[in-house]
Amino acid sequence: MLTNVLIQSLINGILLGGLYAIVGLGMSLIFGIMRMTNIAHGDFMIMGTFICMVIARQYIDNMILALLATLVIMAVLGFLIQNFLVNRVIDKGSEPALLVTFGLSILIQNVLFLFFGADPQTISAAALRANIVNTQWFSISGTFLLNFVVAVVVVLAVNIIIKKTSFGRAIRATSDNVAAAELMGVNTKRIYAYTMCLTLITAGIAGLLIGQTYAFYTYTGTQWLIIAFGVVVIGGMGSIMGTLLGGVVLGLAQLVSSAIFGTAYQILSGYAVMLIILAVRPRGLLGNMTRK
What we know:
The protein is an all-alpha fold. It has helices at 2-34, 41-58, 63-86, 94-116, 126-129, 142-164, 166-176, 178-183, 188-213, 221-235, 240-261, 266-280, and strands at 131-134, 139-141. The protein starts with a helix and ends in a 12-residue tail after the last helix.
């Protein structure tokens, strides 16, 4: 019986790690390119969840079309936020940009509370909640499997964009050396704006996956921000593939420890593993930053 529980926990931990990876992806992008910690990242995800929910319930009775509309809205918001708020202070050091994102976090939470209140919300996905694989050793939830597949596809797509496209080369040049990139004709502020668009697109996808998996509230963004921090610290700040690895490690640490010690130790064990990894490898598992 214990063996079956451990096998089930291992599988669930890996699948949950996919959701964690896409939760942390946007934060890793922003830090890797702008060297900025986005305090509003969790609230951006939950904002995307609410936008998608409203569109699906009120305007488009199709979740895929509602998601596409949400991603367009999120991309536009990302461009506007970066271009008219963050870019104006990003040259003044890390603290002003940090304060801007902190203010955005407070603003988003209060606006969502004003319109939706404090009641829990869900995005219906009844067809996905059933187990699609059932054996005597383990079962696999359709929701968790979909989360993992989507996360892997999105992480790989973003990695290809960064590594293989001219836009990605401009991003990497800006990340490596802003002054040199500008001398080569790269509009770094515009690259930052496009990067924020990409970040909010991944946040919108993550928000939908969160909404169809768990109940969410207007203040749930803080909870997912903490998870995003754990993922990117374990995987390596700024590493796209490290985000996927970090998500899986955190998911496994939480669910395996929960199976062995009980659910009371789930969160504690996950972050204990994070501290151990940081002690052994301060840059994270796939981090490649050097100390300045």
